[in-house]
Amino acid sequence: MLRRFVLQMHELFGPTTVSHELAARRREAILNDAEFVALEALAKPLERFRDDDLFARLTRYLGFENADKTSNYVERENREFRKRQKGHYRMRSRASLRALLELLSVRSPVPTMPVKLKWREQPTTEKEELAA
After folding, report:
1. ∠ Cα 93 95 100 (to 5°)
2. Please, what is the average pLDDT of the chain?
3. Which of 39, 69, 81, 97 is deepest in the core (most CB within 10 A)?
C-alpha cells in the first residue's frame, strides 16, 4: 500500500508529468484513492497534499519549458562545506598536534640567513713545503 503511494507520488513529480492538467489529474487520483484515505499513516501527508497553494508551488516548474525540476546546488554546497570542515578539524587531532610539537621542539630550526661555506685549510705536508 505505502509502496504504491510512493510510486504514484514519483509518477506525479517524475519526468512523465509534462503539464499542469496531467499533474492535477494525478493528484486527484491520489487524493480520491479509498485505500490511501483509509490508511492512518497517510492522513497527514494527504491533508498537506490537499493544499492548492502548496501544490501550485510544487508544480511551478511545469510552466517553463527549459526549467530543471530539481537543483542539487544546496546539497553540493553542503557537501563541500562538510569536506572543508572535516579537513579543518582533522588538523586539530591528537596525532597532528603531537607532530607539530615534535617539529617545533625536536628538530633543529632552519637558519634564517644563508651561511657562506668556507674551505678548510689544507694541512701542509713536508713535500709541499719542499716543492715551494
Report:
1. 95
2. 80
3. 39
